[in-house]
Each structure stands twice: as structure tokens, then as C-alpha cells.
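User: My instructor asked us to take a sequence, write out its structure as C-alpha cells, and then describe one feature of it. I'm not sure where to start. Here is the sequence I was given:
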Amino acid sequence: MRRTLATTAIVLLPLLITPTAASAAQEPDERQQAFASAAERYQVPESVLLGVSYLQSRWDAHAGQPSNDAGFGPMHLTDAASFTGSNHHGEGEEDPRGDETRPLAVPKVAPVTQEIPASLRTLEKAAELTGESREALRADPAANIRGGAALLADYQKSLGAPLSQDPGQWYGAVAKYSGATEADAAKFFAEEVYATIQEGAERVTDDGQKVSLKPVPGVGKIVKWLEGLGLLHPRRDGVECPPTISCEWIPAAYAELPGDDYGHYDLSDRPRNQKIDYIIIHDMEGYWAPSVALNQDPTWPGSWHYSIRSKDGHIAQQIKTKDVGWQAGNWYVNAKSIGLEHEGFLAEGSTWYTEAMYRTSAKLVRYLAFRHGVPLDRAHILGHDNVPGTLPTTVRQMHEDPGPFWDWERYFELLGAPLHGFGGPNTASVMIKPDFAVNKPYFYGCDRKNPSAACPPLPASTVWLRTEPRADAPLVKDIGKHPTGESLYSVYDHSARATTGQRYAVADRQGEWTAIWYLGQKAWFHNPQSQPTAVPSLGLVVTPKPGLTTVPVYGRAYPEQEAYPAGIPYQAVTPLQYTFAAGQKYTLAGPAATEYYRAVTFDPASHTVVRGKTKYYEIQFGHRVMFVKADDVRVSIS
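Assistant: Let's start with the prediction itself. The C-alpha cells for your sequence are:
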């Protein structure tokens, strides 16, 4: 989901982004030394300090920018009081249900702001313990690490546990660092930290710092310290989650409302009546507790199956997967998908997501994908920003989360389905796959106080697409998103972007530049051999059948009129404003079920799945997936 900028930003075209002065001045081992020094100063085992930091940030500094729940630096010290943001569930134009036969009104009243919990204000406590300024704790990685070490030592003392060099004695303090109020969530966080300590880790951070955690085989865990935290044991009520992660049941409201209305999801019987084909990744554009509360309000237009907290990865299941959430803005996709909302913001007051949340989200998605037979690829594990509009009139309204700073490559590694190339250097299809750590394209729009200002150089999963093979060429246009204007470099505009894991057919190559077919046009991106941003990806493609000049594309795979029984109104199969011409190719994700789920009443007795005979294919057409009729295209391998 997204939050639309109130101010139209000025389009800029920078050709070079230079590192910040702070990161440029750092020595290669400065981060490692900062961990060692802080561990010694506050009598915390270095392995514990490194392990906790890895679960929060993977040791990255993120140029001093806040995470999705206002956490800063390698230790993810939270300062939500200074970055309250907003909740966008009522701010976008998108109808989350996405079915014009039962449109939902967007509410005008913003949700009530809740009190900020202590877990989102740890930077204040770190400042008190260390004497460091809040500005230093946000921007200086070494100060931030000292703040995290001081917090761990303070937590250890509060438990009456010793300041021991035995990592196992710190289990309770590590669990408390998660900020969780639920016992399972705190335990999951601690278990992941100790698994990291036992296995070890090594990587180069986003600002070029080489950091390593040497394995500690057979590290002990004094689990009894967890008991002293007095944590809750929430309802599980048959949650559909793997047993290794922390989940609770906080049911979304389903209620009959005045005037034959109801809210705010639809009862169904999936997968008996419809197969689940997609899992949709969202961000909340808000904090966890208020967003969870919205899902409990039947008058609120919009709902989703799972809510995932940032700092510790705790999950609330709110709708059973058999039922249909109003979450993706496209009723066809909603009826065949499960929606996951992740705490945080696409960009406003946020530029990165925590490792703890990536891990639990990936474990949940892998569990759901295996359970429902959803392929672990980017054509079926979709961002909300990959879901198409249903009609030409709804294309502009579709949301754009989780945004360019979501690390799709890392996410698929955690899913156990790493993104790999397939084929030789001249293969006629490619998968977008820039190196996330070093790929730092220009964006503006990250600062709500100055929306036209450039974002800091930050890792991203996306590449810009241009009309010609040169760095100063204009961005390609999206006639659906901007019918009369240019694509923007805004962090909220994906009109001219391709993202990690997406597969496209190659249209041309010139030197260090590769062109793909994108929204009916050639789109060029920089793809140097020394630092490639795409890899070969041999697979099936579609092209117009001989004799057809152009082929229409659709935002949903609805049945033909003859398939509708009496009493169920025909849903017109309306092409979107895009077409593609003879000679163009688009990668094929597979067949799409020709279905319409009729569900517009509180009583599910009348709910019906209409199935047709028209065959559709799902293709990667632009940044979003779309559909074509099988009779219009020819399938080949490329």
C-alpha cells in the first residue's frame, strides 16, 4: 500500500550519486572495532552484541535513515516519537476490494493515534544510559552500537543476571531486546540470535564495512532468564503458521452493518472452491498496533490475513486463509490470494526493513506456499505494486508498496528459493537482479518535510528504465499511470522501474545497455558486464499470433458472458489501455484460472464461483503482472 505525496515534486535527473562524507571516511574495519569496543565497555559478550545487531540490521547503517518502525543504525534503536508518520489505509484512492459491483468508499476520518510503546522508543533510553545525543545515536554507527550495548547491559541487570562473558547467560536480555510483549515472540527472536551466534556470519555492509561473527559451536542458552520478563501468552486459536515462529490470533471483524452492508472481508471456502495462486506482500504505511486495530473494525474498508511486526517479526493472523481479504485492489487477485501486511512505511520516515521481520515473513510465506501450491517466484509472490488495475479507470489508483527498498533477493534466499540465472549470455530473456548492497539509484520523496529533496543513496531492488541506451535519456512512459505526463523519479512512482526477480524478454542490446519489452515499448537499463543488473533467464514467452497487429492486455481473467448463470450479472472483460505489437515478446508466468467469485452479501449462502472456458495467461507486462487471452498469442521458449 502507499501514501501519495501531497506536493508534486520536481523531476530531477542526477547522473552521479556520491557516498556521504561519513561513510566515505570510514576505515574498512571500523564497524568491527566499534562492536569490540562497545562490548568491552559495557561488559557484553561481543558475539551477543553482533548476533542481536545482525537480527535487526545485518550490521548496516542505512545512511542514518530510519527503518520501517523508526529504528536507527546497526542496533536498530527506535525513535518513533520523532517519526510518527501516518496510516495510509484511508489515504489512497484505491478501492481495496477492487470489485465495481460492490465498491467501497474511502473513509475521510484518519485512525486515532495510539500511545507509542516503549519498544518503539529505545533510542531515548540509550541516550540516557550512554550520554550520547539522540542525533549521534541516529547518525553515528559507533555511537549507535554503544547505545545497543548499554541497553543489553541494562536489560541484563534488570533481570538480576550476571554481566558474564558466557553468551548463554544473556538469553533473557536478548529476548527483552526484541521489545516483544509476547513470550513466543521474545523466544523466537532470542532463538534466531543464538542460531546466528552458533552458525556465525560474515558480510560487507551497505557502507563497505567488512564485519564477521565467528561461529560459536554448541553455544549454551540459559532459557530460565526468559521467565523473569513476565511476558504474555496470547491466543493461538488454530493459527495457520509454522510452529517455529511466533503467531497469535487477533480476528478481523466480520459483521452485518445497516443498509444491507457488511464488513470487512468475505467468507469463502478456499481452496475447495478456488485455488490460492498468489501471496501479496504489503507494507502498512503505519505502525503495528494501530494497523491491527483497523482490521478489527468492520466499518473500515480493507482487510488482510496477516500482520507482521518489524522489530521482532511477531505475526497476528486476522483472517483465515479460506476467506477473502479486501487487500490488493483487484477482486480477481483478492479472491485467489493471501495478503501479508508488514509494519512500516514505503519511504516516508522509513527506508529499510528489519532482518527479524524478513525471517518470520519468509517462514510464513514458505509455509503458505507449500500448503497451497503457490510457486515461489516473482510472478506469484507479488508486491502490492505488482498487482494490476482491474479497469483502465483504476490503473492510476493502484498502490505501490512495499517499494524499492524491499530486498527481494534476500527475501527469496530466506524462502529457500534463491533467484538464479538460467541460460547463456545471449539468452533472449533476463531476470532483473542488481546487487542490492551496491545498487543505489536516485530517488526523491523520502522526506515528508521536503518531498522534492533527494533521498540519501540507499540500497534498492530496482533499476530505472529509459527510452534510449544512455544515462541522460528520459524515463519510459506509463500511459496508465501518467496519461499526459512523464514518469517520475519519486520513490512512490514505479512507472519506469523493473525490480529484482521480475523476468522480461530482451528487445535489444547495445554495449553496457539492455532493452526489454515493457508496457508495449523498448525500455533500456544499464547492465554492465562488470556489475550486471540482470542475469539470463531462459523461459517461455508470448508474442502476438501471426496476423494480429496488436494484442490487448487485461487486469483480470474473468469468464466470458455465456458462463454466467441466471441471477449473476456479467462482469465485462474490459481491456486495459495498454497493448503490445507484433514482434514484441513478454515472459509467461503460466495459465490463469478463468474465474469470478460472486460475493456481495453478508450471508455466504449465495456466494458462487463462476468459471469460464476462455483461456488466459499471466505475463510480466510492466512493473505489474497482467493477463492476455491464450487465443491472441503464440507461446515459445526464449
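For the description part of your assignment, you could build on this observation: The domain at 23-81+116-229 is CATH 1.10.530 (Lysozyme). Try explaining in your own words what that tells you about the chain.
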